[in-house]
Amino acid sequence: MALKISQPEQDEPVIDMAELGARIARRRAELGITDADQPRNSGTRRTASKKALLKAIKDAGGNW
Amino acid sequence: MPTYRPEFIAALRLLARISDAMADRGLTRPVLVGGAAAEFYSTSALATGDFDICVIRQPELEEEMQRVGFIRPSGPGQLTRGWIHPDLKLGFEIVADVPMDGNVDAAHIRLVRPIGDTALFRIISVEDLIADRMGQYASGSAPDRLDQARLLLALHPDADFDYLERRIREESKGEYGVKDITA
Fold first, then answer.
1. Is B161 left (phi over 0), alpha (psi -120 to 50) or beta?
2. How does residue A2 score in pLDDT terms, banded at 50, 70 and 90?
3. Which of A62, B112, B172, B173 could form a disulfide with A15 if both were Cys (CB 3.0 to 4.6 A apart)?
4. Residue of chain A minimizing CA distance to B26
C-alpha cells in the first residue's frame, strides 16, 4: 500500500517502531531489565465493559 | 534482545490500516492510549489483548473497523463497548473522543510506522503516558502504576523533562513530579 499522509502531517516526524524497539531493547539490556521485572496491571481499575471485552477475547481463543 | 511480540505487531499494523483509512477520508486519526501504549513504549512481553483508542468520529472509525473484520461480541455477559477481531483474537475499545480529557498537547501526539508496514497510527507520547500512570497512582486506586511510571522513564532517558514535569503535576493535582519517579 502506498504511503498516504495528509498535508499537515507531511513535516511531522514519524517514529519507526523497529528502530524504537531496538533502542528500548538495548536500554533494557543496559539496565538489566527482564520481562519478569515488568510491573503488571492489577486490573482493579477495569470497567465492566473492559472485563466483558477481555472475556470475549478469551472466548474467541485469544491468549494475550 | 527482547522486542515486540508478533501478535502485538500485527495488532498495530491493523490499527495503522484503519488509521490510514480515516486519514484518507479527511478525518482525524484515532490515538492509541492505555496499556497497549505502555507495551509499545516498553517492548514488554506482557499480555495486552485489548487496545484502548480515542477518536473524535466514532461511527466512521467503527465503519473502518468492520471493513477489516472487527465484530461486536455477542452472547450472554458480553455487554461491552469493545470490538473483537476473531482472526487476530484481539479487542479494540473506544474509550474517549480525546486522550486524557483533552489535557494532552496535540504536538505531543506521535505518528508511528509499525514494523513491516507503511501505514501510520497515532499514539500518546511517553511523557503523557507516564503522567497518566502517575495520575492513576495519585488517585490511590492503582498503586502498581508507580512502578510502571518509573520503568517507562528509565527506558526513555531522552524524554522531554519540562513537559513531563508539567504533565505529572497536572495529572496528580500537584502531588507528584519527575523527582518522584527518578529517586
1. alpha
2. very low
3. B112
4. A6
